[in-house]
Each structure stands twice: as structure tokens, then as C-alpha cells.
């Protein structure tokens, strides 16, 4: 529940009856019974507290009575009162005999002690009555709430109030120093606390258990000493103080522990929530956790960032009427010796707010390959959450399950995968509508291209709105730019990004090849319709991506075609350097391919594997172990291509080297023929930009018929001729073009006859 308590008298002093210590006729003075009676009449038994300070005033009056009782007990066996000037500085003979002779403590049948005992019982009854009435009227009392959530008994609650007294009135610093026989002392110790809150010696012996190291006081409420226990100090002499967070809670505010910020966030059940659009079945499963009565429940929830893990839990907890405390474990994972202390504070904060606890980004705690440090962290997590009574959620990106075994907690697990295309389209529409974008916009395109989580789609829509306002364009025109802002991957380590510059008008291919390329683009554009509305997704367990093979001699347009598709679909294109992927060490190639496709899944990019001849070979021509293993690598590559839901393209110069069994696993096999004279002429004309000055003697038909070179060579020739003309300060003419052709052919060892170029 949210801490929403107002303290109308915060900062005001509370006037309480003071314990006066005077010397009168050789004995300490007592509070006058008339004063006690007057204070009792002022309490108004049976009346609800109007505010927390009124409650604390009653508790301090009760504490004063208990301190008075202790003082009277000690005074009955006091030695020479003149020696009180040296109190705590030495032990007299009489005091020694009192301590070892069993005469310490005072007579319980003393009339004054009996009267004080009656006053204490009356004060306790008044407080109990007023607390009960306050509960009926929903008056929030922090001390009562604290006692309830941590399950404190009467003794533990009295100890907390004893320690809180120092925070409420500094007079108690002097009182505790006097009671401890040491005026330099400002805090009570265990022995003094037991003497004050317990009625007799038997109760004191039982109450010692409250200060055990694994008790509630030590675990949650008491300040911890730095540097360990001093040598030679008894438990009774151990000083006590409230933990600063607990004192703050009791006196000031319910805001989360400042030492845990910003890694800890508390979500309250009455906060507004974004609607759930996907994974509604997961919400039903999580809601069932509340009805589990077989013991503490733990839920492992895994999925990529932005998949909605926290939102699911917030909806779930709101349904229970519970708060949710989310702790980012990345902040604490490397905290070393402080990890246990921080986790203990996190668990305490969850108990304090009666909130379910979610350990977010727990992958940082439990790596795939466990080491001594991670095993120690696991032990600490088990130990600190062992007695946590509310649901515990562990949020990770992968399914790597922590091996929790202790505490008898029932563990359940659920994946929040990337939504399907229809669900993604629904998310795009929902977030776009919430952002005020036009309702008629078609969001199937980005839903198909980008395998985004709900969080990524939400952020992409927000970025698209901001970019549209900044650039003065419609949101639909900048949605791809906004989408790529959400993508975080490391493809650049093993691939080179190519900016797609070519369109359909730039590529010169026979109609058959162009039609295949357009069909491939259509398969990506209409995936949502075919796989979603037409039901083909149910028929395909995998292989919903697009795999293509470009086969043809060098320079025939394979790389250009990949750019055309990337530009048509407005997708990123990455060219894979196989030299960075293929390894001579067994298993290393597969590892590199696995990492490559893992990053590709994050990017939704087109993967273009150029010059794959080194990887392919005839399976029937296995001559040694190397050939056999090469086939294994090829099979693994094709497997990853089938699993990949984006576009993957293989380019080869030697189609005949590829086994037919491999070809059957590729959706589109497009053969790029060496261009004939007709297509070479088209390539010559298309390669020159419109702005290039051409001389009147340029004869593209003659060039196409005379030189049998591929489109890639023609591109090199055109560029070289342009620079030759620029150097001379003339338009590009046949002399520059033929000279550039001669240089291009010489690169491949070809020589043209003098008659072919001497005119130029």
C-alpha cells in the first residue's frame, strides 16, 4: 500500500513529563502520583488518534513510566547517595555485594512499584484502545503498520519505540546515559532495553531472543555496525539504534530507501497503466499466482527488452491490490561485499510496502557459465528471499533459469516472446492512435519489417512524432528512421553496412530476373496478410523469412540487386565478410554464425553473404574430413537462414558447386546471366548520370558490341573515363572511354589489339 500519511505537527516539540533526578533526604525523588493521574486523564481512552504525533506522545508517556519503574527499582538498593557524584566511575563495596549477592532489582511488593505497575497497565490499555479505534477510522499509525508488516511482538515493538524516543526528544540521550551509569552514552544498549521494556527477570531472559542475529530486529530494523563486533563485548552491552531508513519511515515519509535509488522503483496499484495489447494469456497465468495457497511463489519471466515484463507484473499486482517493487540487478551485481546488504534492504523495502518483488535484469546475477561469484550471489538471493512472504519475480532476457532450491518456493516460468506480425500491427495502431496520428495509416509495413517488442514500438512511434514535427514531414515518412533508432546491435563486428543507392531504374536485367526480385519483395510486403489473415503461420513452424541465392559471374548485378531490394523495402543492408566468419577451428564457424544471426534478429536487417563459393561444395565429393566439416558448416548456415525471419541472400559465382539438397532449402534462386550486347548497351546508357557532359562521338551501341564486359566492369570504365575527361577539362568522349576500357581489361590480363583503340 502507498505510504500516504500526513503529520500535521511535524517539527513541533512534544512536551512530555520529565523524569527529574534530585537528591531529597538521601533518596532520589519520584514522579508525583497526582501528575501521573493528570496525564492519564488527558489521554482520552477510547478515542481515535487524530494524528501520528498524538500516538507517539502516548507511547512516550508509557516509556517514561517504564523508565520511572526501572529508576525506582534501582533506587531501592542504592548505596550512599553522596557517591552519586562519581556514578559510573567506580564500583563500591556495597554495590559489589548487591551485584553478586542477588539483591539487585528491588522488591516487587513495594507500594510505589505496585502503583507504577498499575499506571503502566492503564497506559498500555489506553494506547491499545485508541489504536483499535484508530484502525476502525483508518487512521494510519506508522508504528502499528511497521509492527504488522514485520510481525513484531510486544517486546520488539516496545524496543522500536524505545529507540525512536531519541529521534523524538533529545532528553532521552541524557536519560539513557544516566541509566547506563555513563553520561557519555547517548543510546541504550541491549541490557538497558531489556530492563526498560520487560516486567521482570523471567521476561528479560525470554526477550533476549529478540536480539538474535537472524531475528526481525537485527534483519530489518536495527542499524548495523561497521567493521564487525568489537572483541570482548557482551550482547547486553551492545548499543542499539534504529536503522536510518526505519527512523525516516516512522517520522517522515514512505518514499523508497534513498540508498537504493535510482535502481529501485515502486509501482502502486492505483497508478494509471497502459493497456495490455498482447500476451493476454500470460496475464491470466500471472493472475492465478494470487490464488496459489501451497506456499511462497516465484515466477521466472523472460523475454527481450521491451517485451512488457514489468507492465505484465504491474497489471497483475494492480489486480491483487498490491504494490510492485522493481529492483534493477545490473546496478547491484558487481557490488561485491555490499551485494548482500543491498539485497537485504531491497527485500525489507518490499516487505515495508507490502509489495511483490521483481528482480529485473537478473541475467547480470546469473551468467550462462556459472562461476564462484555467481554461485555466491545465488546463495545470497536464496538466503535473503527465503522468508519473503509475497510473490517473487525474476526477470531475464533469456531462459537461463537460476537454480533456486531452498525455501520451498514454488517456481513457475513464462516467456514473453516478440509478438507476431498481426499483434505487432495492432500495437503500432494502438500506440499511433494514442500519439494522435491519423487512424487511416497502414502500419502493416513496419510490423512486418521490424521484429519489435511492444516497448520498441511505443518508442518508435514517439520518435516518429518528434521527427515529423522536426523535419516537417508526415510521420509515415520518417517511421523507418524512427525504427532504426530503436535498434541496438553489433553487426558491424562481422559485417559492413551498405547504404542502398540503387532503384529499379538503375538495374539492367532480363524481365525474368526482375520479376523474381519483385516477387521476393512482395513476399515481405504481404507477409502479414498471408501468414496472419490467411492462416499460413499455423502451417509453418519455421522458415517464415526470405532466403535467396544470387548466382552469376562477377559484375552481373548481384550486389546491386541486393541494394535494390533494401531500398524498395527500406531496410538496412549488411554485407557479410566470410573471412571474418569461417574459421579453421572446429565449431568456431558455427559460433560466429550463431552470433551473427543473433545480432541480425535485433536489427531485422538484410544479410548479404557475398562470395560464398568458399563455403559451398558437393556433398557427394567428400574426399577428407575437411570437406565433410565444410558441409556441416553449410548446413548450419542454411539452418540459421531458415530460422531468421528477415531476408538473407547468398551470392556465388559457381552455381554448379552447390549441392541440390542445399538448393531445395532456399526459396529464391536467381541466375544473373552475363549481359549480351543488347543489355550491355542499356548498362552503358544507365551508368552515366544525367549531369555528365558527353561528347557527340560517344557510341554506346558500338561499345556494347565491341567489348564483352560485365556491368561491374562497365561501371569502373565509366567512372575512370569521367576522371580522365575532368583532368583534361573536356566532355567525356570515346577517347576517354576506350582508354578506360583498355585499363580495365589489363587488370584481368586481357589485351585488346591496337586496331581496337588506335583511333582514340
UniProtKB/TrEMBL annotation:
<protein>
    <submittedName>
        <fullName>AAA family ATPase</fullName>
    </submittedName>
</protein>
<dbReference type="Pfam" id="PF22977">
    <property type="entry name" value="WHD"/>
</dbReference>
<dbReference type="GO" id="GO:0016887">
    <property type="term" value="F:ATP hydrolysis activity"/>
</dbReference>
<dbReference type="InterPro" id="IPR027417">
    <property type="entry name" value="P-loop_NTPase"/>
</dbReference>
<dbReference type="InterPro" id="IPR003593">
    <property type="entry name" value="AAA+_ATPase"/>
</dbReference>
<dbReference type="Pfam" id="PF00004">
    <property type="entry name" value="AAA"/>
</dbReference>
<dbReference type="InterPro" id="IPR054472">
    <property type="entry name" value="WHD"/>
</dbReference>
<feature type="domain" description="AAA+ ATPase">
    <location>
        <begin position="295"/>
        <end position="416"/>
    </location>
</feature>
<dbReference type="GO" id="GO:0005524">
    <property type="term" value="F:ATP binding"/>
</dbReference>
<dbReference type="InterPro" id="IPR050168">
    <property type="entry name" value="AAA_ATPase_domain"/>
</dbReference>
<feature type="domain" description="AAA+ ATPase">
    <location>
        <begin position="544"/>
        <end position="676"/>
    </location>
</feature>
<dbReference type="InterPro" id="IPR003959">
    <property type="entry name" value="ATPase_AAA_core"/>
</dbReference>
Amino acid at each position: 500500500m502507498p505510504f500516504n500519511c500526513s503529520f500535521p505537527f511535524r517539527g513541533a516539540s512534544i512536551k512530555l513529563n520529565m523524569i527529574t533526578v534530585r537528591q531529597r533526604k538521601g533518596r532520589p525523588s519520584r514522579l508525583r502520583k497526582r501528575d501521573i493521574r493528570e496525564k492519564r486523564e488527558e489521554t482520552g481512552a477510547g478515542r481515535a488518534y487524530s494524528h501520528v504525533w498524538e500516538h507517539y506522545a502516548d507511547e512516550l508517556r508509557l516509556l517514561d513510566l517504564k523508565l520511572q519503574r526501572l529508576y525506582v527499582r534501582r533506587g531501592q538498593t542504592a548505596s550512599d547517595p553522596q557517591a552519586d557524584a562519581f556514578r559510573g566511575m567506580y564500583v563500591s563495596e556495597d554495590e559489589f555485594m548487591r551485584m553478586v549477592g542477588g539483591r539487585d532489582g528491588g522488591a516487587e511488593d513495594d507500594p510505589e512499584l505496585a502503583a507504577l505497575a498499575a499506571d503502566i497497565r492503564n497506559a498500555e490499555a489506553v494506547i491499545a484502545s485508541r489504536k483499535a479505534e484508530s484502525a476502525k477510522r483508518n487512521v494510519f499509525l506508522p508504528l502499528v503498520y511497521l509492527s504488522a508488516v514485520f510481525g513484531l511482538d510486544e517486546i520488539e515493538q516496545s524496543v522500536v519505540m524505545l529507540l525512536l524516543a531519541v529521534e523524538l526528544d533529545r532528553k532521552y540521550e541524557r536519560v539513557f546515559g544516566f541509566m547506563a551509569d555513563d553520561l557519555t552514552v547517548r543510546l541504550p544498549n541491549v541490557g538497558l532495553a531489556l530492563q526498560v521494556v520487560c516486567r521482570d527477570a523471567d521476561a528479560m531472559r525470554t526477550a533476549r531472543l529478540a536480539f538474535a542475529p537472524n531475528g526481525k530486529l537485527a534483519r530489518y530494523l536495527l542499524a548495523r555496525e561497521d567493521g564487525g563486533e568489537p572483541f570482548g563485548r557482551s550482547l547486553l552491552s551492545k548499543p542499539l539504534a534504529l536503522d536510518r531508513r526505519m527512523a525516516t519511515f516512522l517520522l517522515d515519509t514512505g518514499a523508497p530507501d534513498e540508498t537504493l535509488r535510482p535502481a529501485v522503483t515502486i509501482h502502486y496499484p492505483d497508478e494509471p497503466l497502459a493497456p495490455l495489447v498482447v500476451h493476454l494469456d500470460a496475464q491470466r497465468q500471472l493472475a492465478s499466482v494470487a490464488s496459489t495457497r501451497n506456499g511462497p511463489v516465484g515466477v521466472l519471466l523472460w523475454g527481450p527488452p521491451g517485451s512488457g515484463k514489468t507492465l505484465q507484473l504491474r497489471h497483475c499486482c494492480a489486480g491483487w491490490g498490491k504494490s510492485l517493487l522493481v529492483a534493477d540487478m545490473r546496478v547491484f551485481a558487481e557490488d561485491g561485499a555490499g551485494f548482500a546488504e543491498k539485497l537485504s534492504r531491497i527485500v525489507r523495502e518490499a516487505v515495508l510496502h507490502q509489495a511483490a518483488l521483481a528482480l529485473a535484469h537478473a541475467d547480470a546475477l546469473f551468467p550462462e557459465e556459472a562461476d564462484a561469484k555467481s554461485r555466491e550471489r545465488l546463495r545470497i538471493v536464496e538466503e535473503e528471499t527465503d522468508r519473503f512472504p509475497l510473490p517473487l519475480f525474476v526477470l531475464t532476457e533469456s531462459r537461463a533459469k537460476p537454480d533456486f532450491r531452498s525455501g520451498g518456493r514454488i517456481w513457475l516460468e513464462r516467456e514473453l516472446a516478440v509478438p507476431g506480425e498481426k499483434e505487432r500491427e495492432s500495437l503500432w495502431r494502438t500506440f499511433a492512435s494514442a500519439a494522435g496520428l491519423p487512424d487511416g495509416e497502414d502500419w502493416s509495413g513496419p510490423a512486418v519489417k521490424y521484429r519489435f517488442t511492444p516497448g520498441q514500438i511505443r518508442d518508435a512511434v514517439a520518435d516518429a512524432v518528434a521527427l515529423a514535427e522536426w523535419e516537417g514531414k508526415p510521420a509515415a515518412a520518417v517511421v523507418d528512421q524512427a525504427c532504426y533508432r530503436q535498434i541496438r546491435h553489433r553487426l558491424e563486428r562481422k559485417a559492413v553496412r551498405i547504404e542502398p543507392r540503387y532503384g529499379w531504374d538503375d538495374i539492367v536485367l532480363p524481365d525474368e530476373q526482375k520479376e523474381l526480385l519483385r516477387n521476393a519483395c512482395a513476399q515481405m510486403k504481404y507477409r502479414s496478410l498471408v501468414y496472419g489473415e490467411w492462416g499460413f503461420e499455423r502451417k509453418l513452424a519455421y522458415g517464415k523469412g526470405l532466403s535467396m541465392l544470387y548466382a552469376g559471374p562477377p559484375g552481373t548485378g548481384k550486389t546491386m540487386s541486393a541494394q535494390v531490394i533494401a531500398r524498395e523495402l527500406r531496410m538496412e543492408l549488411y554485407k557479410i565478410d566470410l573471412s571474418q566468419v569461417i574459421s579453421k577451428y572446429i565449431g568456431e564457424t558455427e559460433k560466429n554464425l550463431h552470433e551473427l544471426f543473433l545480432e541480425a534478429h535485433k536489427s531485422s536487417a538484410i544479410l548479404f553473404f557475398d562470395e560464398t563459393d568458399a563455403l559451398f561444395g558437393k556433398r557427394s565429393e567428400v574426399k577428407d574430413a575437411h570437406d565433410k566439416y565444410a558441409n556441416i558448416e553449410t548446413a548450419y548456415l542454411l539452418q540459421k537462414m531458415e530460422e531468421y525471419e528477415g531476408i538473407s541472400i547468398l551470392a556465388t559465382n559457381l552455381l554448379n558447386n552447390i549441392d541440390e539438397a542445399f538448393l531445395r532449402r532456399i526459396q529464391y534462386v536467381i541466375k544473373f546471366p552475363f549481359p549480351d550486347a543488347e543489355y550491355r548497351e542499356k548498362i552503358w546508357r544507365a551508368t552515366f548520370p544525367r549531369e555528365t557532359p558527353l561528347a557527340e562521338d560517344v557510341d554506346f551501341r558500338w561499345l556494347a558490341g565491341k567489348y564483352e564486359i560485365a556491368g561491374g566492369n562497365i561501371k569502373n570504365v565509366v567512372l575512370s573515363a569521367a576522371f580522365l575527361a575532368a583532368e583534361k577539362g573536356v566532355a567525356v568522349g570515346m577517347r576517354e572511354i576506350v582508354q578506360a576500357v583498355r585499363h580495365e581489361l589489363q587488370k584481368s590480363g586481357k589485351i585488346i589489339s591496337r586496331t581496337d583503340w588506335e583511333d582514340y
